[in-house]
Amino acid sequence: MLHLLPPLPALPGGWKETTFELPGRKLQIILPGDPDHLLEDPEVLAANERDDYMPYWSYLWPAAGPFARAMQSAPWPRGAEVLDLGSGVGLTGVSGLVRGDQVIFSDYDPQSLLLSRHNAVRNGLADPETLLLDWRRPMERQFRVITGCEVTYERRNHEPLIALLTSMLAPTPEGEFPSVVWIADPGRYHAAAFVALARESGFVVTILDEELKEQPAPRSNAFQIMQLVRG
User: Fold this and answer.
1) Residue 96: predicted pLDDT
2) pTM reported for the whole predicted model
């Protein structure tokens, strides 16, 4: 139940609620009222000095909405265990839960994980599993499906992310659906570089649009899903 969760902490700029529509269902999503206020928070500034930390989790990024809708038509079997990377406010992971998948929310920031739990439970879903995950230190655990929304915007994160995917994407058992990674992106400049690195690292990459139609190359300023499977 929602009242059994730890409360959300006080936040510079406060919290707000928004409604997001999936096919046939509306979600009520809590998110920071003004994420830019966090950039001046003393704890954030100190963390930035220590480890170049930025509160990216607090923004509802442009690709999150179309990705949440696309998740409803994902090709893997419903009920699959899905690792969601960089869960942020939890919208795309909650969409996966609505679909019927067993979503494990992961993020570098514990505030994201608590918020994702609140957003799952307030929409009538079970309190999900969460993982505090640093991409530079992959866990010894593997998943048949890994998703991520807007996780390739910084070029410096590409190599650690590919290393994590190489380590944590489970092999495909004989005769079963392919183990797969879905990375959503709004058509940012660095997407092509990520695709190139993924291919160099042995992944077969397919570019999909919001209707899951295959595209010939990474898109510019347009939503896309970078689908990775092992070569």
Assistant:
1) 98
2) 0.95
